[in-house]
């Protein structure tokens, strides 16, 4: 009887420790992609994104749909709704993308398809030195100037969490997206 009681107590102890470990892992949160998806699900409604400070640039190339200029990588990015507060800092957080990327639907409504994370080179290097920023366990892509976006040099990564991209989750352009 004592042996059964000890085994039951040991099993209960293992269950408590295992449960605590699982709870600790859950407290550390899901992976970066899950965080990005969860924190941006509300932005399927463009009005919510706009209320949270995301918007099209009033002029320049970023107020238009961005299509690929590379014939070997057809497709488009879409419309970039940037949040000036996030775009102006050096924080790279999967929960707060600097840009939400939308495609125009045939009915004229906008559909959230991707996220873009951006940090300007000068600000990044002032705080972190000449290191390449990383997000989603990958180095971000450097875009020098002059560039088609009329922006100073920056690092970026697109993440197609809301629309499948045959070119890959982190490709700039999606062949399943087109500009009107």
If you had to describe this structure to a student in words, what would you say it looks like?
The structure is a single chain. This protein has about 180 residues and is an alpha+beta fold. Helices cover about 30% and strands about 25% of the residues. The chain is built from 5 helices and 9 strands. Strands 1, 2, 3, 4, 5, 8 and 9 form a 7-stranded antiparallel β-sheet that branches. Strands 6-7 form a two-stranded antiparallel ribbon.
Shape: globular
Number of contiguous helices: 5
Give the low-confidence spans: 1-29
The radius of gyration is 21 Å
Strand content bin: 15-25%
Class by SSE composition: alpha+beta
Largest sheet: 7 strands, antiparallel
SSE order, as H and E?
A: HHHEEEHEEHEEEE
Distance between the termini: 77 Å
Output mean pLDDT: 84
Specify the helix fraction band: 25-40%
Oligomeric nature of the chains: single chain
Instruction: Work out the number of β strands.
Output: 9
How would you concisely characterize the structure shown here?
The protein has 180 residues and is of the alpha+beta class. It contains five helices and nine strands. The strands form two sheets. Strands 1, 2, 3, 4, 5, 8 and 9 form a seven-stranded antiparallel sheet that branches.
Spell out the key features of this protein.
seven-stranded antiparallel sheet, 23% strand, disordered N terminus, two-stranded antiparallel sheet
